[in-house]
Design a protein that fits this description.
Helices cover about 55% and strands about 0% of the residues. The radius of gyration is 16 Å and the shape is globular. Helix 2 packs parallel to helix 9 and helix 3 runs antiparallel to helix 9. The protein is mostly helical.
């Protein structure tokens, strides 16, 4: 990692996780394999900030700890990239176990439970799917009907965001700012 940390991917230690490495990596990983409109790719860092916001809209009054877990929901992708869901399924359960071990180390590094409660995981998934719908229709060229078919209709209480892909440095700064507000 740029911080000088050496992360053992097979046995990740919370002591080797730095938020700056996460933000740097996520800001340079493209959602939708980079197949989005705009001068820049829509990054996983931006997606994480969006999912945290949507999570808070779906369930007002969440603790900062819960919102921080929402922000970090895709944090393992800072080192393993963003594989599209069909490919993850083809790779199999070993991939998911690997991803969950890395997420547990990240959570522990920041004082979070290694495994979020099932209710929060379901809430994060709901926000993640809504984010995918908004990204698909605004950035990835999906029609409304096509996005509804793949992701369903987002819950009515969610405000449709205006998504603009940012340069990596801007996405990194946005992610770090959100992290610091939730972690402080």
């Amino acid at each position: 990692m740029l911080s000088g940390r050496r992360l053992d991917l097979l046995d990740p230690s919370p002591l080797d996780v730095e938020i700056e490495d996460i933000a740097h990596g996520l800001a340079r990983v493209a959602r939708w394999n980079g197949q989005t409109k705009g001068a820049h790719a829509f990054s996983v860092a931006q997606h994480c900030v969006l999912v945290e916001r949507l999570t808070a809209e779906l369930k007002p009054g969440l603790t900062r700890q819960a919102r921080l877990m929402a922000l970090l929901h895709d944090a393992p992708e800072y080192v393993i990239g963003d594989l599209i869901s069909p490919f993850k399924a083809a790779v199999g359960l070993d991939y998911k176990d690997f991803e969950l071990r890395l997420l547990a180390a990240i959570h522990l590094r920041f004082g979070l439970p290694a495994q979020p409660p099932k209710e929060l995981l379901a809430l994060f998934k709901q926000a993640d799917i809504a984010a995918a719908y908004f990204e698909a229709t605004q950035l990835a060229g999906f029609s409304i009907d096509e996005a509804k078919r793949y992701f369903g209709t987002p819950p009515k209480q969610l405000r449709a965001p205006r998504l603009l892909p940012l340069a990596p440095a801007e996405a990194q700064a946005q992610f770090l700012e959100r992290f610091r507000r939730l972690w402080s």
